[in-house]
Amino acid sequence: MFCAITPAFAIDPLPFKDAAQRERFQHLTSQLRCMVCQNESLDASNADLARDLRHQIFEMMQQGKSDEQIKQYLVARYSDFVLYDPPLKASTMALWFAPPALVVVGGIVVFVLLRKRAKPAAQIAMNETGDDW
Amino acid sequence: MIPELGQLALILALLLSALQCVLPIVGAWRDHRPLMATARPLAVGQFVFVGIAFGILTHAFLAQDFSVAYVAQNSNLQLPWWYRFPAVWGAHEGSLLLWVLILDIWTLAVAALGGKLPERFHARVLGVLGFVAFGFLLFSLTTSNPFARLIPAPMDGADLNPVLQDPGLIMHPPVLYMGYVGFSVAFAFAIAALLGGELQSAWVRWSRPWTNVAWGFLSAGIVAGSWWAYSELGWGGWWFWDPVENASFMPWLVGAALVHAQAVTDKRGGLRAWTLLLAIFAFSLSLLGTFLVRSGVLTSVHSFAADPKRGVFILGFLAVVVGGSLLLYALRARFVAGGKPFALASRETLILVGNLMLTVAAATVLLGTLYPLVGEALDIGRISVGAPYFGFLFMLLMTPLVLALPFAPLSRWGKADPASWKRAAWRIVGLSVLAGIIGWILGARGFMPLLGVTAATYVLSGTALYAIKRWKEAPAGKRYPLEMFGMLCAHVGVGVFIAGAILTRSLSVEQDVALVPGQTAHVGAYDFRFDGVAETQGPNWLAQQGTVEVSRNGEAIVTLHPQKRTYPRGQVQTEASIHPGVFRDLYVSLGDPIGPSTGPGGTNGEWALRVYDKPFVRWIWAGGLLMMLGGFCAAADKRFRVRREAPEAVVETPSIPTRPAEQNA
């Protein structure tokens, strides 16, 4: 069950301006993948590459770059693989739209079957006598 | 010599499982009683031999027999004995053996407790379980033999992965497997029903307690894994949507749907075909999870393709099980409208809404887990699918379910009274808004914390309304049958879990700090004073241990001792130090020294520490444990005890008179 776990998570104190910037940094790095690890975010990874990238992201934040700009920079270097939040494009259409489509199709199937099967409500006696558990 | 006996025991178990699969099913087909009667002794025999094999492997670990390759890879001389025992299931070969052993324990329970089931049905159930055991024993012997020798034996073994040297390892895999493998019983009941063409609802009542217990164990196993990751990995998270976690979560979701669908089939006779299908899916997803985790396909599709022996075996087995059972389903399940009719506004409909959302959620987790693998295999660009995707869709999908949840118990079977929905909705929403206001006053500022408070109150107050309704309406002594008590427990668990998950996420304060001894960090409302690092020693590790004094407004709360351990092979493992509490955990883990050290031994300079204030994190696991308890309680209800009478007696619903005047209160 657990062959995939690498120990020692990163602890990397950085001089943030304020709590808001720290939270923004934590949120952003937790959504980015460490490229050399099994399945770890930049936030958690202790790999050298992850550390370098964290520091680079920190610098970019100090320069006033937005999250989008930082992501674009990383995607340009490492492709979409770096994003834990897969962008919507032709190759990820099925990924993003299959779940809502399933809900809609499933909902319609259930509704139609119920309509077909259900007698008019008036004909169903309320379950008056028995215990309704 | 002894390990060869273990190998022999496994081979004998394989032969017995083959017989257990064939003889009883042929017997049931031909109505041949002596053949059917072989099922039980064969199941017992198989259990005995797998038990012997498991015992011998355990002995090899305790005796440090490094001539067994598996022991040499996963133990060493310094490993304390209490970790040598769970080291048996610390890696692939042994955990597979544990899988089979637990399957045999379930089989034995079915053999012992199912004695009052109709003879042919019972024989078929044990036969199907024998088939599953056969598949896994064959897998073990052909690709993952735990008794393979390593000659010449090394002087010392490698080591058990230090991440696994934790009390969590003792608990997590066996409990998780109890759940995983437990769905094989629901599956066997479904296949036995299909084989015999007994599609009346009787089989569902017989299988319900088994499904509930398996689902309860799976809940507990997932909780144990989550807690273990939280306390052991030093990262303070409790769920990462890692494929390994998803592998256990998918059968859990389908299992939750199955538990409810079975209730409908049992009580109202409806949804028969759907219940069969869910039982097949729950077990198939358990197998798929085993494939994902065990084949190495997660590390890399290409490395999997390079050495595909194990993966191909499980994939083949999966294809036989899923394909075979779906074929059987297509041939036998009749999509006739069965059961008592129900209106659009009814308890049945609400349960169906929940079923739809749970199955779509399971499909979404499956899609998100497999999508990157398929993408990699087809070379259409590697992508990552992680927490932002799963978390977002999961929240969306669970919203209708949570909204419907309190109303399902409050609705009548067959036809609900919309006026009573309206009354209940006013109360539930009113209480939720009130809780939101109180939460705001107590400091839950912002959208997410308020969402957590109101959503949790919505579920909890709705569940409480039903409990009160029962108290008023049902005669004393019949108010809360165990089955209903289980439902109440599990639904309260959902509310507690929602509070924990959303509040922890939105109110946690996490900070990585660099401190010199004597320096204090302020995190949340707390002061963490770092008092330096000292060396300490355990049975098989050396550690640097920090001392952190935690206080609030000058009032001392606790002294924490986070460690960084070094194991014999040089592996480094952090041990977070946690001050647990009902409303918050305080959590510190120790990083590396920073910059040049000033003191002797490099331990008095500046150190990196991760400090956490995590409110309500225990509620996540408390919620899961309540769900487990719910599954167990429901299974213990006496209406599930099979009686020897004719099957028709089982189909009717027992009726308890209620006072009609108060029914809609």
Label this structure with key terms.
heterodimer; A: mainly alpha; Helicase, Ruva Protein, domain 3; 2 domains; elongated; B: 665 residues; alpha+beta; disordered C terminus
Concise account of the structure shown:
The complex is a heterodimer of chains A (133) and B (665). Chain A is mainly α and 133 residues long.
Description:
The complex is a heterodimer of chains A (133) and B (665). With 133 residues, chain A is mainly alpha-helical. Helix content of chain A is 48%, strand content 0%. Chain A has 2 domains: 19-82, Helicase, Ruva Protein, domain 3; 90-121. Chain A is built from 4 helices and no strands. Chain A is elongated, with a radius of gyration of 25 Å. Chain B is built from 21 helices and 10 strands. The model of chain B is unreliable at 645-665 (pLDDT under 50). By secondary structure, chain B is of the alpha+beta class. Among the domains of chain B are: 1-160, Four Helix Bundle (Hemerythrin (Met), subunit A), CATH 1.20.120; 510-618, no CATH class. In chain B, strands 2, 3, 4, 5, 6 and 7 form a 6-stranded antiparallel β-sheet that branches. In chain B, strands 1-10-9-8 form a 4-stranded antiparallel β-sheet, covered by helices on one side. In chain B, helix 10 runs antiparallel to helix 14 (347-377), helix 14 (347-377) packs antiparallel against helix 15 and helix 18 packs antiparallel against helix 19 (482-507). Chain B is globular, with a radius of gyration of 27 Å. Chain B has helices at 2-30, 33-37, 39-62, 69-74, 81-87, 92-113, 119-143, 167-196, 202-232, 243-268, 272-294, 301-306, 309-332, 347-377, 387-404, 407-410, 418-442, 447-473, 482-507, 617-635, 648-651; strands spanning 509-515, 520-523, 526-537, 542-552, 555-560, 563-566, 572-575, 577-579, 584-594, 606-615. Classes of the chains: A mainly alpha (133), B alpha+beta (665). Chains A and B meet through helix 1 and helix 4 of A and helix 8, helix 10, helix 14, helix 15 and strand 1 of B.
